[in-house]
């Protein structure tokens, strides 16, 4: 009876020992007897943009040649990666992706992580540097005239992208684009087009294709220096304002303001080789006809032009009737009037008693009309030839509107 009962006991003991041994072997595979392995998590970023890099190949290696373990994974669309079931040990991570400088076990930025069973080791952010060796980008844009906004389609061009030079090109080729070596360094684009000032466009880098959009170029220019001549004293004294306009066809290409007490004015920024007509608006004057300027095709200097108020302009005139009133006027006196500023004189009139009156002393005399410049204030003087001490004076602004004569009464 005792022997029959011992056999089941022996079988149970052997089964228990087998299970313990099996658990030990599983624990050993996970790195520590009877314990689960650890894990590693991290993120890979672009060193320039600090955005996650997808599809980076990541290798984890631990141990030496005799007891070496390796695991592989890749980053997701956000640059995140994860290793699981890692044995407890020190692991070295390496990172590799086409277009980036690899991070291997010998790099100064090599990543080493200690894995502990049942724990996740969070790796600090890894930043990979983009490698642009043998990579090219396309830079394009559209060149426009800064004065009229039109697209520049003609003229010999040169484009400099850093050290890359493209000479004897056409403006339209920039619209298609130029392929240049990619670079993370700052880059200056220098654009030279015949007939325009050189333009420089700075870029922080050239790591991707770039469309610069519209680039306005200032035409090479010349200027016109105008000189006022034959300015009447009353215009000079009042410092009469003037507006000067240069046109090409119906388009205004330059404007200037001046006063007639100044010796000259400047019209700047007229495109090189462009013929213009110049008008000036001056109070009290009309320009007889625009002054035309015809520069040579390559002229970029200064053209001097006189603007004569006597030859290029006409004063706006109006009839002025002078009425002189003076109690000292007597029969047979000669009465007249004049304008101090212009020198305009009204004919002297000899006064007689009207027919049929026994005694009359005309004290109000209509001296008739004369044409006077408008837009300014003038001094009018009435006088009696036989009585020089009896003079009358009045200042009057002469309007340029009105079909009838303007009356000036001299007291």
Query: pLDDT average, as an integer?
Result: 87
Shape: rod-shaped
Distance between the termini: 166 Å
Assembly type of the chains comes to: single chain
Structural class label: mainly beta
What is the radius of gyration computed over CA atoms, rounded to a whole number of angstroms? 49 Å
The figure for the number of domains is 5
What fraction, in percent, of the residue positions are helical?
Answer: under 10%
Strand content: over 45%
- Could you give a short account of the major beta sheet? 4 strands, mixed
The CATH architecture name of the largest domain reads Sandwich
CATH superfamily of the largest domain: Immunoglobulins
> Which regions are unreliable across 5 or more consecutive residues at pLDDT < 50?
1-7, 19-34
CATH-derived topology of the largest domain: Immunoglobulin-like
* Count of runs of 4 or more consecutive helical residues: 3
- What is the CATH first-level class name of the largest domain? Mainly Beta
Q: Please tally the β strands and state the result.
A: 31
């Amino acid at each position: 009876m005792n022997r029959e009962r011992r056999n089941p006991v022996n079988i149970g003991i052997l089964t228990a020992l087998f299970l313990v041994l099996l658990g030990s072997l599983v624990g050993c595979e996970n790195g520590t007897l009877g314990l689960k392995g650890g894990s590693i998590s991290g993120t890979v970023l672009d060193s320039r943009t600090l955005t996650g890099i997808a599809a980076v190949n990541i290798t984890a290696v631990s141990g030496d040649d005799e007891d070496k373990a390796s695991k592989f994974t890749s980053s997701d669309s956000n640059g995140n990666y994860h290793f699981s079931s890692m044995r407890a040990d020190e692991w070295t991570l390496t990172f590799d992706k086409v277009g980036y400088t690899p991070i291997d076990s010998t790099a100064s930025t090599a990543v080493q992580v200690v894995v502990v069973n049942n724990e996740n080791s969070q790796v600090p952010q890894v930043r990979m540097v983009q490698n642009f060796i043998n990579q090219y980008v396309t830079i394009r844009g559209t060149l426009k005239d800064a004065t009229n906004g039109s697209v520049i389609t003609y003229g010999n061009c040169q484009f400099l992208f850093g050290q890359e030079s493209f000479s004897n090109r056409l403006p339209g080729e920039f619209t298609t684009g130029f392929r240049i070596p990619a670079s993370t360094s700052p880059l200056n684009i220098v654009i030279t087009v015949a007939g325009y000032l050189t333009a420089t466009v700075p870029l922080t880098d050239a790591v991707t294709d770039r469309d610069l959009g519209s680039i306005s170029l200032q035409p090479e220019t010349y200027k016109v220096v105008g000189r006022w001549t034959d300015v009447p004293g009353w215009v000079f004294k009042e410092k009469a304002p003037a507006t000067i306009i240069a046109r090409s066809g119906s388009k205004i290409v330059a404007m200037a303001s001046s006063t007639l007490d100044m010796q000259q004015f400047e019209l700047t920024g007229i495109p090189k080789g462009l013929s213009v007509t110049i008008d000036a608006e001056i109070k009290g004057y009309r320009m007889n006809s625009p002054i035309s300027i015809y520069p040579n095709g390559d002229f970029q200097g200064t053209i001097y032009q006189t603007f004569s108020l006597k030859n290029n302009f006409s004063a706006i005139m109006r009839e002025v009737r002078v009425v002189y009133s003076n109690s000292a006027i007597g029969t047979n006196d000669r009465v007249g009037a004049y304008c101090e500023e212009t020198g305009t004189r009204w004919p002297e009139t000899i006064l007689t008693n009207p027919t049929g009156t026994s005694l009359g002393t005309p004290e109000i005399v209509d001296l008739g009309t004369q044409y006077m410049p408008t837009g300014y204030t003038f001094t009018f003087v009435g006088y009696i030839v036989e009585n020089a001490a009896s003079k009358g004076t009045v200042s009057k602004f002469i309007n340029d509107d009105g079909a009838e004569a303007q009356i000036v009464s001299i007291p």
